[in-house]
UniProtKB/TrEMBL annotation:
The keyword Signal applies. Residues 1-16 form the signal peptide. Keywords: Signal. InterPro entries: BLH_phosphatase-like (IPR005939), Prot-tyrosine_phosphatase-like (IPR029021). This is Beta-lactamase hydrolase-like protein phosphatase-like domain-containing protein. The keyword Signal applies. Residues 42-134 form the Beta-lactamase hydrolase-like protein phosphatase-like domain. GO terms for molecular function: hydrolase activity. It comes from Arenimonas composti TR7-09 = DSM 18010. It comes from the Bacteria.
Amino acid sequence: MNLLTLFAATATLAAAGCASTPEPARLPAITNAVAPEPGIVSAGRIGAADLDALRAAGIRHVIDLTPDAETPDFDEAAAVRAAGLDYANLPLSGPADLTRENVQAFDALLRAAGRPVLVHCASGNRVGAMAALRAAWVDGRTADEAIGIGRAWGLKGLEGEVRRLLEEAAPVP
């Protein structure tokens, strides 16, 4: 067996049997959807009309970072569950909710969620903020690394607040 054949066989086996994180079939066509990590889609607000697209993309779990009051005419939890997807909610209203306790809850939700998972808020900004803080406070990343991760997840308008929080605090032990 030559080196090229060995490489091809190894790559085929790795792709067939060693992939541990299911990928979405494709990125769902929803507001601000990005795939910041394997098996994870970050996005903005979803509605009832998006549920078929989420299922078609292979999404199995939805983590909603919005309070129910943001969508009074849409019972997201009931709609997502009726569509056959798992649902979790960590309601974050804004900068005051960017706490260590909420970051730890966010981390726990991500670890427990089946893959592929959609994590969303209204625009993706709160998702990115939580991802940045998680990267720093849970994973021990530097502030610059954490901000980069947050941006990949959708961090925009809350970047100044996230930077302030990162400057004030050390990683969670």
